[in-house]
Structures are given as C-alpha cells and as structure tokens.
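Quick one: structure tokens for this chain, please?
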Amino acid sequence: MKKILLVDDDLDFCEATKLILESKAFKVSLAYDGKEGLNMARSEQPDLVILDVMMPEMNGYDVCVVMKADPELNRIPVILLTAVSQEMFKTSFTKEMGLMTEADDYIAKPVEPEELVERIEVLLKREE
C-alpha cells in the first residue's frame, strides 16, 4: 500500500481528500503546516507528498525546495496544490515560484478528486 502525506492547513479539505485517497487504497497521513509536513516527510518517508502552497509556519514552496535539496527526501514525488491563480492579487506567491521548486506536478485548486488520483497514480508509476 502506497503512503501519501497530505500537507494543507484546510482541515476540511484534508479530511475529504483523505477519504477519497483511502478509498483508492492509499495510506494517508495528514499535516497541517509546512514544518509539521517536513518533519513527517522525514520520519515517515512517504511514497508521495501533496503540498498546499499557502500555509502557516513554512509555505509549500519552501518545503518543496528543502525536500528536493535533501538526499533523504529528494526521490519523493511532490505535488504542489494551490489556489494561487485565484489569489494572485492577494498573495506574493506566483506560479513561476512553483515551477522553480522542482515540484513533480502542480495542480490548481479546486481540483476534481478523479484528476488528483490520476496525477498521483502517474507519478507513483514513474517511481516504480
């Protein structure tokens, strides 16, 4: 069973996404801010990480950069999941920043559950 770490400060989104992913036979761990997510990535060594961008403590871009620079974590595929395109004028985050993080995929919120599962499966197949 593949392990997925979902890091997002939106508790409702986390719970709903966890149910969807568990129904597809994934084991899902949740973290609610960037620092907690990075610590869990180190301790749990998941098969894939889904990172929200706008979070307290440490944003998803920074978490991704740290993961991709860490030899213990850089093999783990990362999906950046963000509402940045809708928040573009309210935030200092940009899509270009996301592309510079070496994330393996970049998905705008809201995302359809089927699309998220499909993208996860593609990345996990690539890692086999």
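The radius of gyration is 13 Å.
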